[in-house]
């Protein structure tokens, strides 16, 4: 028996020099139980751009919703395309403070975890579908070593021991074009790309969505 796939989507708040985080806007627009995605049960959360807090918020959202798939989104300042992140690295290492004023340099995230996790989202399918629909998209081998990588590593670590497979991963989007000097993407276009991504993840048949 298959049931409606539950997909958790997350974005991040503004941070550092990013006054408007498109992924927070995305989450507010999609909202909980979005009717845009018929046949899917969608829950959204906006995570604080802070190493510890975002993990607490993610765990609370996962515990409450028990999703079948988790897609986390963040903004990449210099991205010109949707960036499908392949590897989460077991390291926090950024000179930029998080929103709790914490700077982490060369700190291992989980001492008992592997050096990296590979995203379990269907990245090839997402790439193909975005390309087909005309969106700029590229693969990226890692999501940096700041808060986005931190949450990416955390969810992969959490689901690595789950009783059933829960596809999980991280995708970077560009800044909103009007707030950006040399890169960026129109908000409507980012939103449309996210629709394609969510649909693709929701369409993946198999184990994950079996009751
Ligand atoms: N981007 C940052 C953190 C929050 C966000 O949206 C990053 O790439 O780490």
Structure description:
The protein is an alpha/beta fold and 211 residues long. It is built from 5 helices and 9 strands. The strands form 2 sheets. Strands 1, 2, 3, 4, 7, 8 and 9 form a 7-stranded mixed beta sheet that branches. A two-stranded antiparallel ribbon has the order 5-6. The N and C termini lie close together (6 Å). The structure holds pyroglutamic acid. The site of pyroglutamic acid has 12 residues, from β3 and α4.
What does this entry show, briefly?
The protein is an alpha/beta fold. The protein is built from five helices and nine strands; from the N terminus they run βαβαβββββαβαβα. α2 runs parallel beside α4 and α3 packs across α5.
Topology at a glance:
Elements: E1 6-12, H1 22-30, E2 41-47, H2 51-65, E3 69-75, E4 82-89, E5 92-94, E6 104-107, E7 116-118, H3 123-132, E8 137-142, H4 147-159, E9 168-173, H5 187-203
Parallel strand pairs: 1-2, 1-3, 3-9, 4-8
Antiparallel strand pairs: 4-7, 4-9, 5-6
Helix pairs in contact: 2-4, 3-5
The protein binds pyroglutamic acid.
Which terms summarize this structure?
211 residues, alpha/beta, seven-stranded mixed β-sheet, two-stranded antiparallel sheet, 5 helices, 9 strands, globular, disordered C terminus, binds pyroglutamic acid
Order of helices and strands: EHEHEEEEEHEHEH
Output mean pLDDT. Answer: 92
Poorly predicted segments: 206-211
Secondary structure category: alpha/beta
Describe the largest sheet: 7 strands, mixed
